[in-house]
Write a structure and sequence with these properties.
The chain is an alpha/beta fold and 635 residues long. The radius of gyration is 26 Å and the shape is globular. The termini are far apart. The strands form six sheets. It has a seven-stranded parallel beta sheet with strand order 8-9-7-10-11-6-14, sandwiched between helices. Strands 15-20-19-16-18-17 form a six-stranded parallel beta sheet, with helices on both faces. It has a five-stranded mixed beta sheet with strand order 3-4-2-1-5. The protein is built from 21 helices and 24 strands. The longest helix is centred in the first third of the chain and has 34 residues. A hairpin with a 5-residue loop joins strand 23 and strand 24.
Length: 635
Amino acid sequence: MTTRILLDLADGLCVARPTSYLGETLFAGYRAACEAGGARYDRDRKKNTTPLDDVPRFVLELQRAGFDVRSTPSLSAAIQARAAAQAQAARDAEARIGDAEARAAAVGRALWPFQVEGARRLAEGSLLLADPPGLGKTIEALVALPVRARALVICPAIVKGNWCDEIARWRPDLRAALLRGHGSLRWPEEGEFVVTNYDILDELEAAPPAGVVLIADEGHALKTARAKRTIAFRALSEAVRAHDGRVWILTGTPLLNRPPELWHVLEAAGLARRAFGGWKAFVALFGGHKGRFGYEWGGPAAEVPELLRPVMLRRRREEVLAELPPKRVHELTVELDSATRKLCDEAEAALAARGLSLEQALDEVEAGKHGAGFDELSRLRAALAAAKTPHAVEWVEQAEDAEDPVLVFSAHLAALEALASREGWELVTGGQSPEKRSEIVRRFQAGELRGLAISIAAGGIGITLTRACRALFVDLAWTPGLNAQAEDRIYRIGQSRGVEIVRLVADHAIDRRVLEILDGKARLIEQTIDAATVSAPKGDRPAPATAPQLALEVVPDLATKLARKYRRQVGPPPGETPAKAAPSREGDDVARLLALGWTMPEAAPEPCSCGSPAFWRDEQGQPAHPCCREVSRAS
């Protein structure tokens, strides 16, 4: 006889209760099913519980373990009500998207088809939106918000002003409230969008109003479980989700370096268990095991991308923006002076004598641990950056001779300061105020500066530097995601030329090995995150999803509605009309500008020497000159 598991409703959660004694063997199977289904043990209730949105996975795992799953009428009614509310939210989102497109058209702007699909997915519930930087995640979140929404965004201080600007541009129906200083945090009022930053994030004792939307911008900031900001955000997230709200995580790099970071980012929105079940299942899926320095990780299992798709939306830049020029990355080998070469040899020998691999030692440096290899590697990395600086200066001189605006990135301040001292250059670091950094970026984009020397950690978020199409990395951060974020300052919407990324590599085995290790870490990210991308080519209407048959005997009439949580993208269904493609006009310059989101005026002034209309509206809606991309002062 099959053992029955009864699912009931208590305090907005699904509570599981075996109806008979399980015994040792059945209990082991039950625990494994609860772990795989994402359920948590509630010590007060002495029962396993799961959120209503996660019931389909929980039921599926219980049934796979051979249990007969039944539900109480109250749970079935609660799930029905939630499904109905989600369906209504989706209908409301469609109306808001139409309104947003109309408002954008009125000022010469437009939503890309992939942005429309992103807004639809966000409107369904909590989600990790992991599109690469520069694709407009902020706009998608704003368009997805309900009418008279209560929204709270936590973001880096540098982008607080940008959020307020975009709110005014895309959601003028919402009031933006910018918070400053510790103790200022509060829940939003109806029709209000509260903007604050991670550095002043506090916990709130008061319960949130129903239906709050909590947003974490640059959500990879939540990758460390014990960090104060992560603890505070999780408390807000749990409170919001307990009061019929939703949580959106926006980041182009949900996995910066190691697999646990992905778990913590997802857990901040209550999505980790929905995707992977429990921590043990996650560790197994990534080939993890405890080693000398904590967990050691392998590559992701083949099913990881499919498990991520229900909780994460990521599109490839080259698919959704086919018109974006190509990006070329290559290495430039440079010679070392004898003193630095000797230091490299000594560091290599010291690590070998202590039984440490280079990867283990560099992990300690990145984590700030003063282990056996910390001092050697810290001195070595600084010395390598210093030794490469003259070669960086030579490269910059050649770029300046060609009158190319350029960016130079480094993880070491000394190398950056040497370049920032050049005429027409400025330095961008994490210690600057948001106002000063914004002014430096404005001057560069306006053509007032020849180049920028940028800290990799500080320059990876909140800035667009598409005036440049060439960037040089003196050295690399030990976190691949930070390097990718830095590259994306120039490779994003608004870039009209092919992008060249140059990485300086010293002619010594230890520096070449560093590059190999970083490329290996980048491949892990690609196998995990990029493999879970959803195809949504530009101009195609995003397709509805299919799902596995879940055999939900508890609520059979809702199987189709709830199965969308496990969807995967497929081709357009028969008879569905694709969305209209972007308009095209004759002339290479005209087609290129239209593809970039520029808008041709109805009555163009005299054409310039390139044959294009003299003044258009660019992707920010500003008058712009298509030949040189300089902002016009013309009215």
